[in-house]
Specification:
The chain has about 240 residues and is of the alpha+beta class. The chain has helices at about 1-30, 35-45, 80-90, and strands at about 105, 120-125, 145-150, 160-165, 170-175, 185-190, 195-200, 210-215, 230-235. It is built from three helices and nine strands; from the N terminus they run αααβββββββββ.
């Protein structure tokens, strides 16, 4: 009941307000008859701009997938890592096979020969020999020649003599058998003043004597022949 009274009171107040406004406007227009056309013209000439705000949504940031978390392998124990590094750093060097020491010497009538220790044959000089020298010459100047013998002086056939010529080229000759002097050999085309390197090989191809450097020289008629080189087996 009280609510209805409030509603009736509100309508009464509104009616009074409207009536007061009507009386005021009517009185103004009656006292100013030209005001109404000017008021209408003013409303018609003044555009009414209604601004309607638009809502622009903010751009949506793209969703970037995070990179996968890297998997960290388990760290081995320090002892295991140390063992691995030690094993990787260990280098095994092969033990080189022992090699025979090569002894080289220059043979002239005034010089001797190196020690034959460790070799079964020794190089030796010899005198001029008409029966052994190539071409029946007692000491030919264009050959290096000689003989390979055992300890008793018997010639040994089919033994190989290895040599290096002045140009550095290597070759070999074989000792002879009868009817040639057994154990004899010769190397032709030796120029006076040229240096040759000569040594005896064993049946397996190894070095059976020291290497000797021989300088080809003409025979002066005294002492051993400078182009003769024998290989004598040690006792």
């Amino acid at each position: 009941m009280q609510d209805k009274t409030y509603v009736i009171a509100i309508f009464v107040v509104l009616g009074i307000c409207c009536l007061g406004m009507y009386v005021a406007v009517s009185g103004y227009l009656n006292s100013n008859p030209g005001a109404f056309p000017d008021l209408v013209a003013g409303f018609q000439g003044t555009p009414i701009v209604v601004t309607i705000s638009t809502y622009t949504p903010a751009p949506t940031q793209p969703i970037v997938a995070l990179p996968p978390t890297p998997t960290i392998p388990a760290v081995p124990s320090p002892l295991g890592a140390l063992q691995t590094i030690t094993a990787a750093a260990t280098i095994v060097f092969p033990t080189p096979a022992p090699t025979r020491v090569v002894v080289a010497a220059t043979f002239t009538p005034a010089s001797g020969f190196p020690s034959c220790a460790g070799f079964p044959f020794c190089p030796r000089g010899g005198p001029p020999d008409f029966g052994l020298g190539p071409g029946g010459n007692e000491c030919p100047r264009n050959y290096i020649w000689g003989r390979v013998t055992d300890a008793s002086g018997r010639g040994l056939r089919d033994r190989r003599i290895r040599f290096r010529n002045p140009m550095g080229e290597m070759d070999a000759v074989t000792t002879k058998a009868p009817p040639d002097p057994e154990g004899a050999y010769n190397i032709p085309a030796v120029a006076i003043g040229s240096t040759w390197e000569i040594w005896l090989l064993d049946p397996g191809g190894g070095e059976a004597s020291p290497r000797v450097k021989l300088i080809a020289q003409p025979y002066t008629g005294v002492g051993n022949c400078p182009t003769r080189l024998d290989f004598v087996q040690q006792r």
